[in-house]
Amino acid sequence: MNVFLAGLGLILAAGIGAALVRGTRARAGDAVYQILLIIGCITAGAAAGRVLALGAPLSLTIHGAMPGGDWVLGIDSLSAVFLLAILGVGAACAVFGTHDLAAERARGRRATWFTQLSFATLLAAIALVVAARTVVVFLGAWEVMAISSYVLIVAHHEEENVRRSGLIYLVATHTATLALFAMFATWDAAASSWSFDALAAAAPSLGPGATIAVLLLALVGFGFKAGFVPLHFWLPPAHAAAPSHVSALMSGIVIKTGIYGLLRVLLLLGGAPAWWGWLVLGLGVSSGVLGVLWALAQHDIKRLLAYHSVENIGIILMGIGVGALGVSYHAPVIAMLGFAGGLLHTVNHALFKSLLFLGSGAVYRATGTRNMEELGGLARRMPLTWLGFVIGAAAIIGVPPFNGFVSEWLVYQGLFSAGQTSEVSRLAILGIPALALISGLALACFTKVAGVVFLGTARTAHASDAIEIPRGNYLPALALAAACVTLGAMPALGIGLVSATVRELAGVGNVGLPAPVISGASMISLVALSTLALSTLLWLTRRALGRRWTARREPTWACAYDAPTPRMQYTSSSFAAPLLSIFGPLSGVRVERSTTAMRTHASDAVLDGVALPLWRRVHRAALRLRGLQQGRLHLYLLYVMAALLVLLGYLAFGSRP
Amino acid sequence: MTSFAELALFLVVLSDFAVLATSRLSACIRAIAFQGILLGALPLLIHLDISGHLVVLAVGTAVIKAGVLPWFLRWAIREAAVRREVEPLIGYMASVILGAAALAIAFAVANALPLRMVGTDLLVPVALVTVMIGLVVLITRSKAVTQVVGYLMLENGIFLFGLTQSERVPFLVEIGVLLDVFVGVFIMGIVVFHINREFDSISAARLTELHD
Amino acid sequence: MTDSQSGVSFTALAVLLIAAPIIPGVASRTKAILTGRQGSPVWQLYADLWKLAQRGTVLSTRTTWIFQLAPVVLLATTIVAAALVPLDGRVSIVRFAGDAVAFAGVLGLGRFALSLAALDTGSSLEGMGASREVTFASLAEPGLFVAFATLGVIAHDFSLSAMLGDAAGRVGASGGAGPSLVMVALSVFALSLAECSRVPVDDPSTHLELTMVHEVMVLDHSGPDLAMILYAGALKLGLFSAILMNVLVAASGQGKWSFGGAAIAALVASFVGMGVSIGVVESIVARLRQPKVPLYLAGGSALALFGLILVLR
């Protein structure tokens, strides 16, 4: 445990180091930051890995008169899995971000050390959230995580768009914290102390009303952070506005803390009633479908990737929903399959989503724009970025031999086995075509992104003048890509990683994962490797024989048209148009026509339809309360004193023990 | 020992009323400094077991509350060149009557509150009185320096409360003292000096111009 | 899997690899006969493949390595998918729980590669083809999965070998799942027409770029690359015909073949049957307009959904 804390300390030291060594010695500061942060992540990650390997959870209690009782930290298998993902992806994003910030420094931005410091703080806070075992530590780390995320999102605060996105994010995350406060308060009323063990012990004695309240508040609080529909509306603006390495961390890791929270609540409660599992499954399906649909309509790369995070959270929720259903129907096999799929997809998504965001960061740094309609043909100018991006795209659409396929396969299995059993849960089998729809739409969307951005020819000067980022800078992304391929070709690794946690969540003690899963994992390896081998064989054969065949280079056939221009290529909006028009108003695309022009605009249904009107209504009501605030200090203090007297009176004469 | 503690508490209440009644700023500051010394001595008077930790705490409290903070306040008065307080919003007579009413409320409420009594059972009512009179000073005075004195009195009251809990949460008292230092530097440096510089006056009534 | 069984499976795979190209030939021959023409011979695709393999390739100046990699990936994934389907009516070469998902996934990889190659050319025609292809595919996939889910519920197993292979026949007959299986067969046929780019979703014989879907997507490929793509298309048709045959046999309630020879013969017969059915459909029905295709796909999926509901009750 001390090793873990030492690792966190090193991470914080990295940030402080970057803050101290700045200005003219900024490059040394960068080196200090990277080295300390990587060592810190490895150290803390080693502690987490040890927990998983040995199966022995760690715990540390800091006694003392801290507010809220003792402070307890602990790493069990659930925390360990998340920690490995957090630290691994965090290190990659930090290293990539350092180069990004160095480039910005060269362009004249100052105070990049502040971004480094906030990033280190954020990473340490996330690790602490996952390792917290009392309410106070959890909520404290949660708040630090939220605030440092906000600071990072508004790094480019000179743009009004960025400030607005940051504000929306702040509102959403504090609503989440409020819900979490309410949840813990409800729960604590029945518990003896504020540690998670006490909460777990008090779970059986919670009344039905309190249990419903806790479950729903958990869903709202952690849901805002995870970002499933309809609590997702802060995600796209925030992830698009933040610097790329921050978006990578946020999409890959920060939203997963919401998933972690849900799983932890599930563990502490010892299972949830069936209606909760169905609710989560339904939310998962709707998030998945709507997320990818809205992603199709975007033309900003990062907004598109952010909506894809919503979709993948939907898939994760489907897995968790199936798992929860398995637990409530006392079917351990279903529970294990569902949780395995959800948890593995969490890890996988962290890997390939960060990879994709880092790729988009590289594109932005090279071209200066995030608008897909202005790019094109970058595969020739940025081959390394293209390689990483296409691996990430193939991974996210869930095809073998990449890792997305493995977790989706597990979720399919879970849905199918749920559909096999008792009468009610047979409905779960309808999740199978839903997941297939999600995968199909994801394939369409990423064909669009990869094709429009990297393939074809450059549509504007942004793309034709792009300069590839230095190869060394792209190493973290390539490391993530390698991880995607490895986990895809050897699913046994991924499944082994999460098996201890899955067993704990499903409540089956030392029973192993079902045999079909283990044998299936090795068979998937066979499929993956044979695909790779066969492709390589055919490719080599073709190259060998191809020397006999002449290969001429001619311009692309344009139906005998003599002067094709880059603007004649398919744009991203036109690529997605057939699919979006099928879904009609659900896709959120608004079309504005005039006599000479047509413009499509992708709007977010929840943000524009629900959140903003609600905000405006609250604002109007708050304006009416303005009369109470006249700027006179004495009046405010009078309010404070009056409140104090009322409370004293209530304490003294009101509540009688 | 309790009689000494009770004497100290009685003197604390007197110093509260002194701040309420006087119109000279230096007298206010002297009163709060005196209160600081009393508060420094109180932990030693209440707890029968004198440990090194406790002595350090007492001396530190006394130094900060009776030495550092009043020095800051006097420096602020010199820089801003003020001498007398203007008539408070409700008049000196009414302030003292309000203080007396606060005393009565405090004693009435303290009996009904489910607090554990440590040392002497005067501690809780005196803490309540100090808090309330501090609030009254904050509300009714217009010069920023006096308001800072009122805030310090509020803090002293909270410190007194902390003494009743100090066996279970010894940390809390120390953190409270640290807060004092923070408050002192923050309020003094920024509020008084900047108000004086920005608005050519440290009259809190002019703060109403900040609202939209 | 016993040696003799695996031997039959490998033989079936070899038969698929050799005989699948007759399906488009049979289809066009059927269409020709029905419309009173002579038509091209049944082995036309073999001749085309041979001709293309001899030729050189013309590559666009805009394309990158993915353009040349895509046909290779397409062919490789189609062959791997063939290893997952029980071509001999009993077991597939590779099988595991949930391999139906792997089947769809592997075919998806091929489609992804080909769509990227289409966009690689930077041509508006190919972009249009890729756009339509992924649109129709994303709507056809759920229907296919509903069909798989139905088969899985009937067979109590989510592996293609169990759904389509040995056990299916017995369970189908005894469980009274006949009507359900017929629905599934109709649905799979309708959706396979979409997946393999046949009428009424796509017309492989049209030469107008604006009306093509799959054909326009591979417009720029030439020589051996085009040969690989055409061959992979034929293989895919063969896969779906094998699937359909197994479903129909299960629906009829008969037992499975008692020896390997009959299985191989049945496989070849399914190719011919598929070709004839496609030819008949192409003669009777015209290609649907673009906005109608989603309705068609939804209809196909609905058939499978009815089958699922029937069997879930």
Write the layout of secondary structure elements.
The complex is a heterotrimer of chains A (657), B (212) and C (313).
Chain A (H helix, E strand, L loop, with lengths): L1 H19 L5 H29 L3 E5 L8 E5 L1 H30 L5 H20 L3 H19 L6 H29 L7 H7 L5 H19 L8 H7 L2 H26 L4 H23 L4 H28 L3 H36 L10 H4 L1 H14 L6 H18 L10 H24 L6 H4 L10 H15 L1 H16 L8 H32 L4 E4 L17 H12 L5 E5 L4 E5 L2 H20 L8 H22 L3
Antiparallel strand pairs in A: 1-2, 4-5
Helix pairs in contact in A: 1-2, 1-4, 2-3, 3-4, 3-10, 3-13, 3-19, 4-5, 4-10, 5-6, 5-10, 6-8, 6-9, 8-10, 9-10, 9-12, 10-12, 10-13, 11-12, 11-17, 12-13, 12-16, 12-17, 13-15, 13-16, 13-19, 13-20, 15-17, 15-19, 16-19, 19-20
Chain B lengths: L1 H20 L3 H22 L5 H29 L11 H21 L10 H18 L3 H22 L4 H30 L13
Chain C lengths: L2 H17 L2 H13 L9 H11 L2 E4 L4 H20 L14 H22 L3 H32 L4 H5 L1 H10 L2 H18 L18 H4 L5 H30 L7 H25 L8 H20 L1
Helix pairs in contact in C: 1-12, 2-12, 3-11, 4-5, 4-11, 5-6, 6-9, 6-13, 8-11, 9-11, 9-13, 11-12
List keywords for this structure.
heterotrimer; B: mainly alpha; 7 helices; globular; C: 313 residues
Structural description of this entry:
The complex is a heterotrimer of chains A (657), B (212) and C (313). Chain A folds into three domains: 1-250, no CATH class; 271-528, no CATH class; 605-654. Chain A has 24 helices and five strands. Chain A has helices spanning 2-20, 26-54, 77-106, 112-131, 135-153, 160-188, 196-202, 208-226, 235-241, 244-269, 274-296, 301-328, 332-367, 378-381, 383-396, 403-420, 431-454, 461-464, 475-489, 491-506, 515-546, 572-583, 605-624, 633-654, and strands spanning 58-62, 71-75, 551-554, 589-593, 598-602. The longest helix of chain A has 36 residues, at 332-367. The mean pLDDT of chain A is 85. Chain B has one domain. The termini of chain B are far apart. By secondary structure, chain B is mostly helical. Chain C has one domain (3-312). Chain C has 13 helices and one strand. Chain C has helices at 3-19, 22-34, 44-54, 65-84, 99-120, 124-155, 160-164, 166-175, 178-195, 214-217, 223-252, 260-284, 293-312, and one strand at residues 57-60. In chain C, α2 (22-34) packs across α12, α6 (124-155) runs parallel beside α13 (293-312) and α8 runs parallel beside α11. The two termini of chain C are 34 Å apart. The model of chain C has no long low-confidence stretch (mean pLDDT 84). The chains are: A mainly alpha (657), B mainly alpha (212), C mainly alpha (313). At the A-C interface, α15, α16, α17, α21 and β3 of A face β1, α4, α5, α6 and α11 of C.
